[in-house]
Amino acid sequence: MKIFKHLLLLTIFSLCYYNCKSLPYNNKVKTLEEKPVVIENDSLAYEIIIIEPGFTNFLNNIAQPEGFYSQKYLESRNRTWVITWNERARNPLRFNPSIYENSIDFQPTINYGYDVNYKLFNYFLFAQKKYRMNLGGGFRTNRIN
């Protein structure tokens, strides 16, 4: 009986190994390479490039779709969050400089357009969730795994 169990396990293992080994390369699971998210407004010569693991997935699969928020709402949130972000970026001894690497030049009098505001807003949501931080404004965030 014990020999039968070992033989059965060996057969199952061998079949699994053979089936996995015989798959063509194109059918194997490939690692998805995350591309940077570019936030830009060509008419203003404004560009932000976000190279943050997980942000592309967040933007494509978790964030509310474009049009969910009004541009006025996005601008209001972004103004508040940019002020907090920039204060932290200017204080690397107090706040993690690997998170707040750069300050953001966001002028409240400039109309950056919906796309810029939408992506910047969602980056702030993503960062708050990922790093368990609060940039203000009463948003509750849960951690992203």
Strands of the biggest beta sheet: in what spatial order? 1-2
β-strand number: 2
- Count of helices? 4
Kindly estimate the percentage of residues that lie in beta strands according to DSSP: 5-15%
| Gross morphology | globular
Low-confidence runs = 2-31
What is the helix fraction of residues, given as a range? 40-55%
Global Rg: 23 Å
Write down the oligomeric state: single chain
The sequence of SSEs as H and E is HEEHHH
Overall description:
With 145 residues, this protein is mainly α. It has a domain at 37-130. It contains four helices and two strands, in the order H-E-E-H-H-H. Strands 1-2 form a two-stranded antiparallel sheet. Helix 3 crosses helix 4. The radius of gyration is 23 Å and the shape is globular.
Entry keywords:
mainly alpha, 4 helices, disordered N terminus, 145 residues, 7% strand
Q: Summarize this, please?
A:
With 145 residues, the chain is mainly alpha-helical. The protein has a domain at 37-130. It has helices spanning 2-21, 55-62, 71-89, 114-130, and strands at 37-41, 46-50.
Helices and strands, with pairings:
Blueprint (H helix, E strand, L loop, with lengths): L1 H20 L15 E5 L4 E5 L4 H8 L8 H19 L24 H17 L15
Antiparallel strand pairs: 1-2
